[in-house]
Write a structure and sequence with these properties.
Elements: H1 2-82, H2 88-134, H3 148-197, H4 199-210, E1 217-221, E2 224-225, H5 237-241, E3 246-247, E4 254-257
Parallel strand pairs: 1-4
Antiparallel strand pairs: 1-2, 3-4
Length: about 270
Amino acid sequence: MEHDKTRLLVDLQLLDNELFNVLSEQRGLPEEIHNLKEQATAYADILKARKKRLDESEVQKRLLTSEIKASQEKIKKYKDAQTSARNNKEYDALSKQIEFEELEIKKAESKIKSIDDERQHQLELEAAGKALLEENNDSDITDEMLPTEYLKQRIIAIESEIEEKSRMLNSIIQNTQSQINALKEKIRAQRNLLSSIDRQVLSKYDTLRSGGIQNVVVKFDRNACSGCNSRVPASKHAVIFRGGFYLCEFCGRIVVHADFFKEEAAPARFNP
């Protein structure tokens, strides 16, 4: 019974590792595709925010230009009215109106200059960013320094890379799906057998494996656990040589006789 239990444990690990290796062919690609999509989205967000600021500034400039034109028309009207003013009081009132409109024009022109200065500053930042990129020195580049054309080109390149990696992933999935399904079915059957004999050891195996330990079942090598090189108590040697196993007190791995790992293709190969 101990021999059968150990054999099932070793074979389960071999099947799990085989499935892991098959899945590893595609494991990196979904993450790479996800990271590329996030990068493309980040670049697109920069362009979107930049375009929004530019559009808003253009709208503001048009409004300010319209206000200037309206003030200029008022000034012309007030000056024309001054020529026919009936008295000094009326003339002075028109002069104050002219001064007010001239002040409004200056305010609007100042705002337009600020908008133009901000735009020029952005162009200068992008020029500096372009120079750094040409020098392959992108460590000091901020998002605002990334040139607009560079961002557009990067998005196109990233989208092309995403398409290529997606095709690769789909091809791998298509080519390995039948193998994956077969392995999963074998693992399910193996787990059912082991569970019918010893649920606790299966639970121990699952706990260790889910904790990031791929090889839960390890060889008894030089009187030690090959997983952590800790000595196996002499009192446990006989159990291992009879085909049983020992739970390492230091790393928790399941230590079995090395013969269980020989000729891994054979379904039953341990001879105590």
